[in-house]
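Much of our argument rests on the idea that a fold can be written as discrete symbols. Part of our work consisted of pairing the sequence of a single chain with a tokenised description of its backbone. We regard such an encoding as a compact summary of how the chain folds. The amino acid sequence and the backbone structure tokens for this protein are reproduced below.
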Amino acid sequence: MLLQILTLLGALGMFLFGMNMMSSGLQKASGDKLRKLLSSITSNRFKGVMTGLSITAVIQSSSATTVMVVGFVNAGLLTLLQAVGVIMGANIGTTMTAWIISLLGFKADISVISVPLMAIGFILSMMRSEKKKNIGEAIIGFALLFLGLAFMKSSVPDLQSTPEVLSFIRGWTNYGFGSVLLFLLLGTILTLILQSSSATIALTMIMLNMGWMPFEFAAAMILGENIGTTITANIAATVGNTSAKRAALAHTVFNVFGVVWALIFFRPFVGFIGNIIASMGLPNPTQIGLEVATESDQTALLYGLSMLHTVFNVITTLILVWFCPQIVKLVSAIIKMPKGSDEQEVFRLKYIEGGPVSTAELAIKQALREVIHFGRISQKGLDYALKAVNSKNGDEFDIYRKKLVKYEEISDRMELEIANYLHKIPTAEISTATSEEIRTLYRIIGELESLGDSGETIGNIIVRRNLHNKTFNEEELKNINNIFEKVNIAYDVMIANLTCAADGKPVDMASARNAEVQVNELRNNLRDEGMYKMESKSDFLTSVYYLDLISELERMGDYIINVSQALV
């Protein structure tokens, strides 16, 4: 008996590993397309539903889709309203798994060809093409999934040899509607433990197929699975921002509402599903007892569960798709924005604090949004450097000097945290193009951190000037302000190019080069003029600080053009 239980647990582990491997391979094989698909979502909620349905049908994991959506809301790539529609579609898309299992896992013994499939997958995984490698991984995962399902079927206790199992389950069926709630709770807990609605569905189908319970209680377990599956997104959102937490809660609201209406109309709903299956020329699953006598009975029960799962999610979506704005208002009222968050947001990561999303290919876009945020913070540091240079007295300068020191610390911290995020992306599971993008992002955050250092350097130049009681005259201040303006224009071009890269648009190198040339030309003119004046006047120290300042601003222009060049 112990060996049988351990075999069942091992088979379940193989099923889950195969499911994750297949999903991971499919996500990587279609990662760039998924990225573009998600980027194309508009405020049209129906398009969002179809997007969620399509993605989940492709990658075979509603949890992966929902976690992906939570990550994208966290990154500001999707609005909360758009996310609600995608989550609804994901719930419909996940019903494909139940149909695949019922059509292939029971009707045909896929486990017979699982080992040959692994051979095909292994051959593909050895090829140079990244796409073929990913498809090979998906095929191996598919084979392991059905091999695990076959082992689960064979290791579930047989009721003839262990009739105590049946008496145990029968003890749960004598409480009327209370029994329905009991099996619903069982489905919820199983999904919470396994972290996979697909595994719970597979186990429910096996138990139903072996006569452990009547159809209506298996249906209750399927409803419970819909509540349990929401925990994955909520776990992912715990370290995310407020919008991410709201998106995860919207998933919970959707599924809980669906289960509530299904429980209110439980008997008529289950009867309706039974009639649909009967209309297909199969026995009515609600009228099949614990003795599953024929193959036709088996098919009716499996199709009945799959149909119930699909119809349940379709009806819930058709009801709630009209109330997306109301769902957004509800979750926003429950999860309120922290006080003072707008002021604090500048000084921490905005987009990747939730950790990498489920697919490495998609994580890059999230990281790029954080880099854009980093660039904007760096530009604010330039503004404080300008104010420090133009300060009228020591007290005013001290305020901006402290700002520059703080912004340099922020840039150091942001570089480290973005680098840590990129480091968490498993390099063994990414395409060559994505690996190149990661190297580009490492280079860019290094350049942005250098810009933060330059801001503090400018503050230190003014500190030394003030210690020697020197000041810049009106002409020098005008020249300095002019070069600050040129650097600020270069910043605007850099951020525009980063935004284009995040949106998949071409980078405008012509504007970037033009901005850098203007900074260089102005620096050259001012340096030559400054050197000439240094030779002809006695205030040598002021000229030194003036030229040091101009040189540092030109150096900032170099860091800025390096960012745009890295993107090409």
About this structure: The chain is about 80% helix and 0% strand.
